[in-house]
Amino acid sequence: MLATRALSLIGKRAISTSVCVRGGHGVAKVEDYALPNLSAEQKSLKEKEKGSWVALSNEEKIALYRISFKQSFAEMNQGSGEWKSVVGGVFFFIGFTGLVVLWQRKYVYGPVPHTFEGDYKEKELQRMLDMRMGPVQGFSAHWDYENKQWKK
Amino acid sequence: MFRAVFRLSATGARSLTRSRPCYSAPLASRCYSHGKVETDEEFDSRWVTYFSKPDLDAWELRKGMNTLIGYDLVPEPKILDSALRACRRLNDLASAIRILEAVKDKAGPHKDIYPYLIQELKPTLTELGISTPEELGIDKL
């Protein structure tokens, strides 16, 4: 007896997710599977549909189609222009990031080390040549030691 | 003929002793080691029979079409003929037109399939008075 009472409670719960006549909620909504409320004109067209379809005009056929289907395949499959907004947004934010980076360089980062200065760099370069760095294929290979200039 | 890769391989004891080469030509078979093959003709006649049921109801029509469209193939004209006649029995012109749109969509990039289908179905379309989506102008936006 306890089992039957338990089962009847389970039964009650199951009903609420199934399709029923008053189903506006749930997984399988009744609107998805039944015809919408028809106007008088649509009702008479539906009656005419029971006869020969040769007698229907193109407009009537399209009207019958639209009763059952909201969008045609062409309308359903059409693309939107959304991608332009997306690409535009991407470029905008990349640009904004560029501004942030420039601001950072100016206001956040301190000065570069003194080793980047012109004088220092010249001395560094001379030192590299003096110690023959990359003498075969690399750096010093391009320096003409006889004429004290870069090889042409 | 319009089948892509929806075939079951041939059977049974043979494949236990010999290894089956798997090739992916358009009319290839899957390498199941068991299970009966359903030929194209059997598939077609099964579906023609399904739609030919005299008391087919609207749900069964929708279910059949949705299942058929779910397969990786474009249905043969005779299956579509049977489905269109089922639409006629159910007084459902909208579904008939929708079926034509759907098979055009199924053909995808193969633009020569749909004109062939329409050519084959022309007698049925004229007999039943079904206009193609092109005639109604709903194939364009």
From TrEMBL, chain A:
Q: What pathway does the annotation place this protein in?
A: Energy metabolism; oxidative phosphorylation
Note the superkingdom of the native organism: Eukaryota
Q: How does it sit in the membrane?
A: Single-pass membrane protein
UniProt keyword list: Membrane, Mitochondrion, Mitochondrion inner membrane, Transmembrane, Transmembrane helix
Localization per Swiss-Prot or TrEMBL: Mitochondrion inner membrane
What CDD domains does the record tag this protein with?
Answer: Cyt_c_Oxidase_IV
InterPro entries attached here?
Cyt_c_oxidase_su4, Cyt_c_oxidase_su4_fam, Cyt_c_oxidase_su4_sf
Identify the GO cellular component terms for this protein: mitochondrial inner membrane; respiratory chain complex IV
According to its UniProt entry, the protein's GO biological process terms are: mitochondrial electron transport, cytochrome c to oxygen
Task: Outline what the protein does.
Answer: Component of the cytochrome c oxidase, the last enzyme in the mitochondrial electron transport chain which drives oxidative phosphorylation.
Hey, which family's this protein in? Answer: Belongs to the cytochrome c oxidase IV family.
Q: Which PANTHER family match?
A: CYTOCHROME C OXIDASE SUBUNIT 4 ISOFORM 1, MITOCHONDRIAL, CYTOCHROME C OXIDASE SUBUNIT IV
Name the UniProt record assigns to this protein: Cytochrome c oxidase subunit 4
The source organism is: Oreochromis aureus
Its gene name is COX4I1
From TrEMBL, chain B:
Membrane topology is: Peripheral membrane protein
The yes or no answer to whether the keyword Heme is present is: yes
Q: Looking at the UniProt record for this protein, which Gene Ontology cellular component terms does it annotate, in alphabetical order?
A: mitochondrial inner membrane; respiratory chain complex IV
Q: Which Pfam families does the entry mention?
A: COX5A
Keywords assigned by UniProt? Answer: Acetylation, Heme, Iron, Membrane, Metal-binding, Mitochondrion, Mitochondrion inner membrane, Phosphoprotein, Transit peptide, Ubl conjugation
Q: Where in the cell is it found?
A: Mitochondrion inner membrane
Q: Under which name does UniProt file this protein?
A: Cytochrome c oxidase subunit 5A, mitochondrial
Pathway given for this chain reads: Energy metabolism; oxidative phosphorylation
Which PANTHER family does the protein's record reference? CYTOCHROME C OXIDASE POLYPEPTIDE (PTHR14200), CYTOCHROME C OXIDASE SUBUNIT 5A, MITOCHONDRIAL (PTHR14200:SF17)
> Its quaternary structure?
Component of the cytochrome c oxidase (complex IV, CIV), a multisubunit enzyme composed of a catalytic core of 3 subunits and several supernumerary subunits. The complex exists as a monomer or a dimer and forms supercomplexes (SCs) in the inner mitochondrial membrane with ubiquinol-cytochrome c oxidoreductase (cytochrome b-c1 complex, complex III, CIII).
Query: Per the record's keyword annotation, is Lipoprotein included, yes or no?
Result: no
Function summary = Component of the cytochrome c oxidase, the last enzyme in the mitochondrial electron transport chain which drives oxidative phosphorylation. The respiratory chain contains 3 multisubunit complexes succinate dehydrogenase (complex II, CII), ubiquinol-cytochrome c oxidoreductase (cytochrome b-c1 complex, complex III, CIII) and cytochrome c oxidase (complex IV, CIV), that cooperate to transfer electrons derived from NADH and succinate to molecular oxygen, creating an electrochemical gradient over the inner membrane that drives transmembrane transport and the ATP synthase.
Query: Which family does this protein fall into?
Result: Belongs to the cytochrome c oxidase subunit 5A family.
Q: Name the Gene Ontology molecular function terms of this record.
A: metal ion binding
Q: Which GO terms describe its biological process?
A: mitochondrial electron transport, cytochrome c to oxygen
Its gene name is COX5A
UniProt-listed InterPro entries: Cyt_c_oxidase_su5A/6, Cyt_c_oxidase_su5A/6_sf
